[in-house]
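[Q] Does anyone have a clean structure-token version of this?
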Amino acid sequence: MNKTKQLLSLTLFFLYLIGYAQQSVKGKVTEKSTGEPLPGVSIIIKGQVKGTETDFDGNYEIKNVKSSDILVFSFIGLQTQEVSVGNNTTINVELEDSAQVLDEVVVVGYGTTTVKDATGSVEAITEKEFTKGNIVTPENLLSGRVSGVEIRTSGAPGSGSQITIRGGSSISASNSPLIVIDGLPIEENSVAGSRGVLANINPNDIESFSVLKDASATAIYGSRASNGVIIITTKKGKSNYTLDVDYQYTFGEVLDRVNVFSANDFRNIVQQQRPGDVGLLGTANTNWQDEIFRTTGSNLINATVKGGILGFIPTRLSVGFTSQEGSLLTSQFDRKNVSLSMNPSFFEDHLKINLNYNRNFEDSRFADTGQIGAALRFDPTQPVRDASSPFGGFFEHRNGSNLLNTTKNPVAALLLANSTGKVFRHFGNLNFDYKFHFLPELRAVLNLGFDKAEGETKFTSSFNYGRAADLALLFAGVNSSGFSERSNRLLDGYLNYKKEFDKLTLDATAGYSYQKFEEFGGTSGNILDPASFADTFAATDVVNIGFFGRLNVDLLNKYLLTLNYRRDGTSRFSANNRWGDFGGAAFAWKLTNEDFLKDSDVFSDLKLRVSYGLTGQQNLPNVNDVYLSRYRFGNQNSLFQFANNPIRAIIPSVINPDLKWEETTTLEFGLDYGLFNNKFAGSINWFNKVSDDLLFNAALPDGVNFANSVIQNIGQLEINGIEFSLNGDILNTEDINWNFNFNATYLDREITKLANGQDVRTGGTAGGTGNTIQILREGFAPNSFHVFKQLYDSSGNPIEGAYADLNDDGVINDDDRYLKEDPAADVSLGFQSNFNYKNFDLSFNLRANLGNYVYNNVNSSRAQLALLQDNEVLGNIPSSVLGTNFVNTSDVINSDIYLENASFLRMDNITLGYTFDRPIRKFNKNSLRIWAGVQNVFVITNYSGLDPEVFGGIDNTIYPRSRNFMVGANVKF
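[A] Here you go.
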């Protein structure tokens, strides 16, 4: 009996040990759809803040775990999974796709957070959520995906984009966000021969974007963060060997044309309006727009290899080839990319090293976009070619070998000129992340980065049209070249301390940043023209130094506080204005962790946020040293004669020693929500931004400086906005998955102060000398249109030159112009849908702008009957003249009749694909996805021009966007 009792007691004792003893659990986390390991997966013990994350191979180990514990696995865009520990010491987990985004890791300045724990306005977009289609430059992966972010790209191949976040923060300084690639901030200016600073980066190398919008999130970047920050994280290496090959072919065509008279209609209008010039008409029937535009073919090829080197260095190597034809004759963009990422760790993951290196080669042929306007103007009754012409066999208006002073043949101008650019760029970073052995809560991070680009241009032309009066120089042609080089070097170092207490988590960061920018270059001038001279330049170096810190406090997993501070110094300003202090504070309250909402069936997540901060702006292209007394040599013709010696003039440059950065304060209230177990999730934000000391090139009184204008700090700009986003998981079954993203942004921009309250004219237009159509005025939106109010007769027809006398002084002059609308949209909308049925996938995205206006300068400067005469010959004009019968451009150029509502709805892309699982049975893991799609599917708008999306709101011919038809294949091993 005693033995039985002893045995029972011993059994109960061991059961007690099994139930309550602590153990270690390890395992591997993979993605169910691909089988690939997942680095960075968060693993925590449920109900605690204790946890770890997977390494680059998806492996993890968590110590001191009880058998009664539950492990929670969460990762970007995948379903969170809970697993009971029990007696298991090895737990392998497969995570499935999900539209839930609240556990996503968001890269912020000098660290990371999650959407759940973010106190500021930040959004993370990962590869699965990227915009699909013919994506050549990386910023277009974000198009229409993030509330408050607007991206405008022209139709030119490899074209750069205009990116703004929440309407920017400036008037004439840069409104582009700070771009940070793997911790390396880059300048928005590019070298000679490049199409843009992001044009030579392969979108295939991008893993995620983090968009930082409010001041509390961006303040840690200090004097460069007023326009928001976009952090680009590139793809990293893995230990498991995989091969991924992508191929895409695109066929494109510009479908729309500006409506000008056809050859026969042109003959009729000339007969009616200028019967005396009928003899100048030709016998051809030429559509000049059809002649300069072409169908295009483009190829994109990417190959990526991942695997471990030497057994412990996760590595990724990718190569990419892009060849994109432009719709305009001769335009071409080619790019070659090589990207390497190596991510080893040492000392049981105490030391992590990330090496990222990119080599990019960009080759472009640039077509003269001015020939689009020439195609609208050139006589459609004249032929493209003329066998007797000395100008390459192309028809030109001429008298023998003498060109007439009129529009030149646009086809000849394109084909007889060769404008090329070549760029070599390499950039990267080496990051050391060391977790101290004796104090694992403390990390030291050192980031070394560089970005160097070398560009060259060459322009040759068979004829020098600019010297048409001198036949020798005309037929000598043009041969010129240029070069420039830019470099960017970075050193960042910081300490991070993160400690989890019983009810409190502290996360503190403090660091130092040093960055230096250098640039120089030159041009040869036309070496075939004795009056053209070479020139060189060396820009003053720019050095930025920063001291920064951040404190995150999490109390009870309910109350979150973030404090940011940065002290910045820049060599762009004088010693008195060189240093500035920037910072922000944010507080968030997780309502769903409170008892009154903890068991809610409706709200699975609910978080209130409030933030306030101060950021700066110092980005003035080509203005690095305006505070210095500088002198420059005049050109070769600026000579003084001393005795028999010609001496080049030395000219003082304009100076402003009082220049300093713009400062923007932002107040924001936000609500992050998740409904029905996060089936629907998103955020609502209201914000107010006030920018002071606006940088603007303002006029100067005569005689007070060495120019009539200089960059100054003047004025104030206020922006109020509301943002809304909604992510939904509509269907999620074994065979069907359907999710969507919708976002909306409302912006109200107003200039609240200008120097001396004076208006500033801006927005130059064609159709005369010195014409402007926009103005900066207190109490109105920037670049509001400044127009005359058109009068109409009793039949509703506009009366040429008749405008309303708005000030009732009996005289029609500039004082009667009024402000009407502005180019910025009041509301911007984005919608993306992803639908999967078994192995089929269908996705599309829509964008809409409401309340944006465009001044149709194509019509205002061309659609007048007097322009049927093009100096000595005839010229074509838009057929819209028949709706107005206007005669003289100068009488109507500033009429509000040319101001149009350009609101639109556009479907950017639609793609349909099918994935074959393991088509090659020889290999255990492989897949083949084939797909087809259309880009620029349709646009619905009342705007009469080619495209309602116009840079700056003034349409004076644009490079049109083509409709592209795409097919592609993706093979994975």
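[Q] Thanks! Anything notable?
[A] DSSP finds nine helices and 59 strands in the chain.
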